[in-house]
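Hey, resending since the last one bounced:
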Amino acid sequence: MLTKRIIPCLDIKDGRTVKGINFIDLRDAGDPVELGAAYAQQGADELVFLDISATNEKRKTFSQLVKDIAIHVNIPFTVGGGISSVADVAPLLEAGADKVSINSAAVKRPELIDELAKAFGSQFVVLAIDARKVDNHWLVHTHGGKQPTDKKLFSWAKEGQERGAGEILFTSMDHDGTKQGYAIDPLSKLNQLLRIPVIASGGAGRMEDFLEAFVIGKADAALAATLFHFGEIKIPVLKEYLRSKELLIRF
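The structure tokens again:
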């Protein structure tokens, strides 16, 4: 059994970490560089930094912020937001990012996944999928969850895998920020369907929610934001709890 990963996510807007509920009502959660460094020290396995307004503002992710993060972080970190070409990735790599996350641009032009995988390797490409349940179907949304599409979660995740994505980051928009637990059913289905790792995102409220994501949902990693940013759950305590449940956890 592979080691399960705990991944804090920092959504960044105007240079600050923010967090909302169901992708709206954002509130300030602190400086992303300071938070990232603190999480690395606390034992986070990886970090994800998402420039959530880059696509809507039609600009690229700030490479200077990536540099600032890289100086203070000694664990792998993924950067996303505004990435739409191979050329966009080089400055992020040079700045210190270990992986990139793509979302809206990949939905618009799926060939982007192939191009990035060919240029940098599948292990470098994380396909982020934001979806919510509409008329009994999990529909993919883009532009920070603002634009619904006709793509369906499971077929899009499978296509992403076949095109060369190395991981799927699935966020349930219905669960995001609610602290009611992850979307276990679609998470489990994704893990049955795919051979690449799946990261669970959206809805963590208790340590038991992480356990369910790993044991029932079969997630390879669990991502959370609100709980960590506001000190409701400490990463070392969470890891001790998960290890007590006989999960393979890195310390």
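Residues 19-27, 54-60 have pLDDT under 50 and may be disordered.

Sorry for the duplicate.
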